[in-house]
Amino acid sequence: MSAIDANVSIMIHYQAGEVETLAQKLAETLGSSLADPFSEDLVLTRTGGLQRWLAEQLASQLGSSGHGDGIAARIKFASLAQFGARLREAGVIWSAEGLLPVILTALTELIDTEAFTQVRAHLGNDHDQPRRRMSWAQATARRLASYATWHAEMLEAWVQSRWEGPDGAPLPEAHLWQAQLSLRVSELLGSTPLADRDRARQAARQQAQGYARIALFCPEELTPLEQALWDGISEAREVMTFSLDQSAPSHPEPRLLAAVQATWRTGTAIQANLDDSIEIYPVHPDRQVETLAERLTSLLENDPRLQPRDILVLVQDLEHHRQLLEAYFRLDLAPGADPRHRIRVGVAPAPRPDDPALDLLVFLLGLVNGRARACDLLDLCRHQLVMAEHGILASDLDRLSYLIASSGMRFGVTAAQRSGQAMEAFSQNTWLAGLGRLVLGVALSEDELLYQGTVLPLDAVDSDTVRLVEALSMIIAAVRQCCQTWVVPCDLAGWSARFGACLEALTGSSWVAGPASRVLARLGRTKLADCPALTITEAENLLIKAWADQSRGSAFLNGELGFALLGSMSLVPHKVIIVYGLDPEAFPRPIPVDGDSITRDFMSEGEDPRQQDRRVFAEVLASCREKFIAIYPGFDPVRSWPTPVPVPLEELLSSAERCVGGEVRDQLVHQPPSASAEPRSSIIPPPALLARPDSAGGPSSIDDLTDLFVNPAGYWLKRQAGLLASTFREPKLLASTMPTVLTALEIWEITNRMLRLLLGGKTADAILQAELRRGILPPGEVGLSQAQDCLATATGIVNRAQGYLAAPLSWLTIDTGDLVGQIGVRGTDLVEVFAGKIHPHHQITAWIKVLCLKSVDGETPWRGVLIGKSSSVILTPGSSVEAAGHLGVLQALYREGRRSPLPAPPGPSAQAARAMLRQPAPDPMMITRALNTLWERDPAWAAIWKTPEQMLGLPSDIPACFSSRFLAQAQAIYTPMLKAGGVAS
After folding, report:
1. Which residue from 14, 35, 491, 703 has the fewest beta carbons nearer than 10 Å?
2. For 345-478, where are the E strands, in sequence order?
3. In whole angstroms, what is the distance from residue 764 CA to residue 751 CA?
4. What single-letter DSSP state applies at residue 725?
5. Bridge partners, residue 627, by sequence
6. What is residue 352's predicted lDDT score, i.e. its pLDDT?
């Protein structure tokens, strides 16, 4: 960086040890009367944070009656860089943004030349590397802009076709392409960096004449362009500078913080006593926010004079920590709220303004340029603007998720979009194929096995979901249009029009009044008429850049405790400053590795990111008035090993030791208390899981009786708290890939579906053709082979059951006085056919129904016949008296299960009952293993009893016979069924 030119004519030069004193002197100077009361003053500062603080300071003094009720009017604040950008409509020509479209144009012209051989090999084919050209252009634009800032003389030599480096030596042949590219860029722009600076100086000189007074507040070393602007201003007006004095404080015994600040400024150690003005906390990365909350609440509680506005938290990577900080310090003034939620916190705004339309546009760009998964379609339907335009309600989202999953959508809007995966010939599982199933499902039934081409109707569509199918049709049509048009490159104006048309189709006109309209308008304006056609990836990068460049209003420094980016509040004084998240590996920033950089070995101080970060840290330290706190990740996140101290903090500790004259690390570096090791339960138990009276009146239904014994835990949760078992399970993600091998569950689902269709009288060929169009099988011969295997399994089950299915199905009405319902039988058999194993919960259902039949009609030889994939079970009840006795026991347990949870899971209970038939007591390890497996598979049990041991600990009503209630009920429920022919699978 170059220092301010000493030959510039300066009217007034002020110095002070603190920025508050400078602000007061500036207010006194600007408070003097002017000949023209409508003239405007210009105050140049370094950062936006300092501008806002200075404006507040001036407003409290100018025109004030002494009570802080003044006003700062007719004063324009800007940094030198902002002042220069305002002089020209398009900003600085030789900036990374201004150079990008020009570099793309020059690349098109030079790509086939000999000097660009390596560049041509790097970029490759646009189809193979769609993002590489824009990435290269952006990196090159940043590099040339850096050359123009710090090594403009080298670029001037290139304009004159002198291929030399920053030291005047001949340019290596590997870097010759940069010189030729820079030459062509200069020709297209009609300007060189030095000429650009000269125009900036002339424009600044002319612009400065419109201000009455110009003040430079807390100047820093200037870049060459800023120096040119300063030269132009000083040629037009005499200026005032207000700078900090680098001398040490005059207090004979300063606090340790003040002594360290003076030591950093002057390099001379100032003696001080050890105190608590500096605190450093190395913590585990996941504990940083907890440590921050503890320190903030402690500071505010222990010091009544300290207000939230007196504290500033500076975060190294604010965007990385933003969501966590906003969530952790959300405002909650309710009684009993956590102390951290009572702190009014203001987080500096994000780099780009929030806008749902632009967020939607970026999402669509990734969707069109990506795989377009089924979950992407659901996310698109969930977008607030899309929901509002197409009439989708929040209550419709679960239904939409089910429709998308059932339709077989996996990835790809159309088959053509799958060309990158070489699957363009397979149209199944695309958005369009799934939409076709939904549309046909409006008019046709899936069970009829009528299909159109490769599309099978979907039974999930009913009259209530027709409007959702219509909304999906319009959304998919809009995305399909984007997929067809956006793959064709065009200029920026064309991309702006395309983006606008897409937003219009998906959101109506709701986006026009927001930032999206301004961003697209800016995107459509290009400086060069011959800007080359841009691909979708390049247009996406330029859209995001134009979005990030949008200004955003801020209510920062409004009395709240502030969270800001480190470096954005340089020299803004606060009583307490906390530096948060100071990553030792990223601060100070290392010099970026750029193999194409010509000036890496000739880097000036202003280019070195390490020096910039050290300067920022020094300014933060100088802004602190009473207490400085640093919180950084001091331990490895995996092994919890200590990590090195960040370099600035190490220098801070060294300065503190010089000031105190001894070792102070143990006193300044604090170890926060470790967090509780007690794991937090991921399951929230439903309320009031206690026994309650059974208020049911009249007879019970057979179906309700069987529901309880099939899953006693799920039955209790549904009855007591209105919760389904799915409430406790993680939501199932929509499939986004084509399977190559079906899972066991998918094989069962296909086999079961084929089995039902065969039992319904459909032909094997029709079932197979329909299954191939359902969108579930793997593509090609693999899917056909697996479908044929499933069909063979289903056919074998039907053949084994054929003798029991010969009799027609008839429905008998059962009414025992306590139980009512209908049971379907074939002759004297209750027949059930299964595509998989016959599990105990299948058997208990059939057993209860057979007992009902036998207790009502004891003369008929009723049987329960269950036929599965590899086994069969025939349940034969005894006499009507025995059947009535067994049914009475089950009804008594049913009434008990309605009052309190019944510890009788079918699988483990049947296993225990079978063991008790052979020996007095079953193996405890066997029961525990079975219960642990159940607890992992079905979270409903864990919602009632945290562990199987808690359930097994329930005392038995018959302690002389059974050690637990679980064993007593297992014997009562399943032993009679096992004796009647049942098996526990």
Report:
1. 35
2. 345-347
3. 12
4. G
5. 576
6. 66
Residue of 631 and 92 predicted with greater confidence: 631
CB-based contact 362:578 (threshold 8 Å): no
Cα–Cα distance for residue pair 627/311, rounded to 1 Å: 9
Residue 844: the pLDDT is 92
- pLDDT tens-digit readout, 344-375: 887 877 666 678 888 888 889 888 888 888 88
Q: Which amino acid is at 823?
A: I
What Å distances lie between residue 947 and 292, 547, 681, 943, 953, CA to CA? 36, 52, 12, 9, 10
Q: Which amino acid is at 347?
A: V
Q: Is there a contact between 825 and 861 (Cβ–Cβ < 8 Å)? A: no
Q: Which residues pair with 826 in a beta bridge?
A: 809, 829
Mean pLDDT of 166-178: 85
Chain length of the chain: 985
Q: State which amino acid sits at residue 900.
A: S
455 in Cβ contact with 478 (< 8 Å):
no
**pLDDT single digits (tens) 292-312:** 988 888 998 888 888 888 889
Task: Tell me the three-class secondary structure of 800-865, residue by residue.
Answer: HHCCCCCCCEEEEEEECCCEEEEEEEECCEEEEECCCCCCHHHHHHHHHHHHHHHHHCCCCCCEEE
- pTM score: 0.65
Considering all CA atoms of the chain, what is the largest pairwise distance in Å, rounded to the nearest integer?
Answer: 121
The answer to whether 818 and 891 are in contact (CB under 8 A) is yes
The DSSP code sequence of 942-961 is HHHSSSHHHHHTSPPSSTTT
Tokens of 812: 């008998």
Range 874-903 average pLDDT = 89
Separation of alpha carbons 894 and 700, rounded Å: 10
As a whole number, mean pLDDT of residues 756-764 equals 87
Closest CA to 321 of 578, 671, 564, 570: 564
- Are residues 713 and 943 in contact, defined by beta-carbon separation less than 8 angstroms? yes
CA distance 587 to 581: 10
**How far is 453 from 427, CA to CA, in rounded Å?**
11
Question: Tokens for 133?
Answer: 């050209």
Beta-strand (E) ranges in 284-343?
311-315
Running DSSP on this structure, what letter comes out for residue 601?
G
Query: pLDDT tens-digit profile of 43-56?
Result: 888 777 788 888 88
Residue 813 phi, psi (nearest 5): -90, 125
Contact 773, 455 (CB under 8 A): yes
Cβ atoms of 984 and 911 within 8 Å: the answer is yes
The two tokens of residue 895 are: 């009434």
Could you tell me which of 317, 346, 312 has the C-alpha nearest to residue 329?
346
Are 310 and 53 in contact, with CB atoms under 8 Å apart?
no
Structure tokens at 351: 């780099």
Alpha helices in 525-563 (DSSP H): 536-548
CB atoms within 10 A of CB 174: 12
Instruction: Look at 76-85, 506-515, 870-879 and tell me which has the smallest mean pLDDT.
Output: 76-85
pLDDT exceeds 50 at position 675: no
Tell me phi and psi for residue 188, to 5 degrees. Answer: -65, -40
How large is the average pLDDT for residues 323-335? 81
Provide the CB-side half-sphere exposure for 368 (13 A, CA).
Answer: 26
Burial class for 601, CB neighbours closer than 10 Å (0-12, 13-18, 19+): exposed
Q: Please state the φ and ψ torsions of residue 972, each to the nearest 5 degrees.
A: -70, -35
Q: 895 CB contacts (<8 Å, ≥6 apart)? A: 694
Those residues whose C-beta lies under 8 Å from the C-beta of residue 169, and which sit 6 or more positions away, are none
User: Amino acid identity of 866?
Assistant: L
Strand 819-826, strand 700-701: pairing? parallel
What letters, b where the CB count within 10 A reaches 16 and e where it falls short, cover 858-885? beeebbbbbbbbeebbebebeebebbbe
Nearest residue to 94 (alpha-carbon basis) of 172, 165, 198: 198
Question: What is the reported pLDDT for 793?
Answer: 92
Closest CA to 705 of 855, 563, 536, 594: 855
Q: Cα-flanking dihedrals φ and ψ of residue 75, to 5°?
A: -125, 125
Confidence check: pLDDT of 109 > 60: yes
